[in-house]
Amino acid sequence: MGQFAEFAALHVPGDPVVLFNIWDAGSAKAVARAGAKAIATGSHPVADSLGLEDGQNVPLDLVLENVARIEEAVDLPLTVDFEGGYSTDARQGGENVRLLQAAGAIGCNFEDQRVGGEGLHPLGQQVERIAAIRDAVGENFFINARTDLLLKNKEHDDALIDQVVERGKAYADAGASGFFVPRLSAPKQVERVAREVPLPLNLIAFPGAPPKSEWADAGCARISHGPFPLNALMETFEQMARDAMA
């Protein structure tokens, strides 16, 4: 079984794979030693580790170099948080993801918010972008299509979940492998999205989120941790520095 197939098989509704997001080869090795079944970068911690702001501010060549180093450091499937693909043009975005694949990634997150702008890409445009990525990378690549609807809206009501489901179904038809909905957390809403969208559902753990068991019971297939591990680590590191200099 190749690493793509191995990674795809980890996405089991009711028994979610846990991805403890890393930022470089050293953090990847630490997570691998902890027993991870796969490695996932987070764009926010990668940027933070370089003293940059999140939002495609890490140069693309540096992203690709980092991916190659991580891939060499650990013998596990590697998926990369690739934000908006570093282009609003569908064809160029597909080519950028192909470069990511060539660097060693077997999957990526691809979001629908306008990186550096306002709101989300129109549904039709985002479908075109996902389809272009699929054309560029072939079948053996895990496109984790992310919608930022819940991040962009304060009221997480049924009408918003209708839009989430609409986007999830369209992304599946366009060739996505998984569906990522940051800030989706209420078990009843999780259950609805997992039931109605024909893709494994990815959620992100955050302080105050429901326990993993509730999300698993609702049909979640993947749980990420985003920037929170590095945030906690840096708080500890800063306090250690304060204690040392006291």
Helix-strand layout with pairing:
Layout: H1 3-9, E1 17-19, H2 25-33, E2 39-40, H3 43-49, H4 60-73, E3 78-81, H5 90-103, E4 107-111, H6 123-137, E5 142-146, H7 149-152, H8 158-174, E6 178-180, H9 187-196, E7 201-204, H10 212-217, E8 222-224, H11 228-245
Parallel strand pairs: 1-8, 2-3, 3-4, 4-5, 5-6, 6-7, 7-8
Please characterize this protein's 3D structure.
- With 246 residues, the chain is of the alpha/beta class.
- 49% of the residues lie in helices and 12% in strands.
- The chain has eleven helices and eight strands.
- It has helices spanning 3-9, 25-33, 43-49, 60-73, 90-103, 123-137, 149-152, 158-174, 187-196, 212-217, 228-245; strands spanning 17-19, 39-40, 78-81, 107-111, 142-146, 178-180, 201-204, 222-224.
- An eight-stranded parallel β-sheet has the order 1-8-7-6-5-4-3-2.
- Helix 5 (90-103) links the parallel strand 3 (78-81) and strand 4.
- Helix 2 packs parallel to helix 4 (60-73) and helix 6 packs parallel to helix 8.
- The longest helix has 18 residues, at 228-245.
- The protein is globular and about 55 Å long.
The count of DSSP E runs of length 2 or more, i.e. the number of strands, is: 8
**Average pLDDT score:** 97
What is the radius of gyration?
A: 17 Å
**Percent of residues in beta strands:** 5-15%
Question: What's the quaternary structure here?
Answer: single chain
Give the strand order of the largest sheet, numbering strands 1, 2, ... along the chain: 1-8-7-6-5-4-3-2
Describe the biggest sheet?
8 strands, parallel
Calculate the terminal CA-CA distance, rounded to whole Å. 54 Å
Give me the number of helical elements.
11
Residues in helices, as a percent range: 40-55%
Q: Which segments are poorly predicted (pLDDT under 50) over 5 or more consecutive residues?
A: none
Q: What characteristic shape results from the CA principal axes? A: globular
Element order, helices and strands? HEHEHHEHEHEHHEHEHEH
SSE class: alpha/beta
